[in-house]
Amino acid sequence: MPSDSRLRWIRALAAGVGAEVLTILTIVLAVKVFHANTETAGLVLGAGGGIVFTFLMALWAAGGVDNRYVLHGLITAIGAVVVHLIGLAGAPGGFRPIYAIADLCKLIAGTIAGVVVSRRR
């Protein structure tokens, strides 16, 4: 059985994966339900949604720990960035500069979420 500390890290990484899943679901919803252009939805919602969902999931992950809030927010963001980069490996169109900016913003969003949680405690 994993220790509580390890479970918290797993929770933070899972939150990062969850942030990317929510982003993908948002893009699919925009394309299928609202008939948005796939490329535009991917660029706009992928970048913006990824940042927002990373922040929200980092709030959740950092809220479940007793200390190291910023670290857990950052781990969530790292998880989201890693999943995003793995997904880009097979994506048509390859890597674009907007993706690097969005991933940097995810790291900032995760860190800010950790700070927000630490100030609430």
Features:
121 residues, mainly alpha
Give structural notes:
With 121 residues, the chain is mainly alpha-helical. It has one domain. 83% of the residues lie in helices and 0% in strands. It contains four helices and no strands. It has helices spanning 4-32, 38-63, 69-89, 97-120. The radius of gyration is 15 Å and the shape is elongated. The mean pLDDT is 92.
Task: List the topology elements.
Layout: H1 4-32, H2 38-63, H3 69-89, H4 97-120
Q: Tell me roughly what share of residues is in helical segments.
A: over 70%
Poorly predicted parts: none
Structural class: mainly alpha
Q: Return Rg in Å.
A: 15 Å
Q: In percent, how much strand structure appears in the residues? A: under 5%
> What's the mean pLDDT score?
92
**How many helix segments?**
4
Total strand segments:
0
Note the gap between the termini: 29 Å
Main sheet specs: none
Following the backbone from N to C, one meets helices and strands in this order, namely: HHHH
How many domains? The number is 1
Shape descriptor reads elongated
Summarize the structure.
The protein has 121 residues and is an all-alpha fold. Helix content is 83%, strand content 0%.
